[in-house]
Amino acid sequence: MSLKDVLLQKLDSREAKVGVVGLGYVGLPLAVEFAEAGFNVIGLDVDTRKVQQINNGSSYINDIPTSRLEPLVKSNKLKATASYQDFADIDTINICVPTPLRKTNDPDMSYILSAITEIAEIAHEGLLVILESTTYPGTTHEIILPKLEEKGLTAGESVFVAFSPERIDPGNEKYNVHNTPKIVGGITPACSEVAKTLYESAIETVIAVSSPTAAEMVKLLENTFR
User: Fold this and answer.
1) Count of alpha carbons within 13 Å of 187, Cβ hemisphere only?
2) Which of 118, 127, 128, 150 is the most buried (most CB within 10 A)?
């Protein structure tokens, strides 16, 4: 059985361990959605105050009431950490770190670089890595993929890499993670298939596009329209 088929089987059976990097207004709602879908989820944030608050079952995100978060923490479906070592046996990782604009109006890529450098250290065969952070077209190919290839991993065969732009609209009472259509573009068709399968476990509508660059352009166009 191929690594892709093994991971698909884990996703279908909810045996896959799901990781989310960055527990802000994008990452925490996504982690909660995956946990409610039946996965064991580990959320990672460098802010130890956020980690402690989540592990106490208390939410700091308006869109996620404590009454929704607390049962997931108490049932061990969701926990938080500040250490990438806790990701050693993780099956999927969603990168949801911020990319604030610098004075020159281009995105600060330091959080993405830091995250993928740490992830590459613990990356293993069969891992799915999805970037969700808002960024420029080409980021997944230029920054995410090379770091994993340096570990001897091959996209579509031994590691699965995709981009899926976050589309959170904080405070929107009608549209949330679950019912906002999700765009996903993988490095290879196998990457797209695995990433799409993960999202379909928790999100109503998932649309695969031709590549990570196409998915990155979707987000750029959406932000421009908004």
Assistant:
1) 25
2) 128
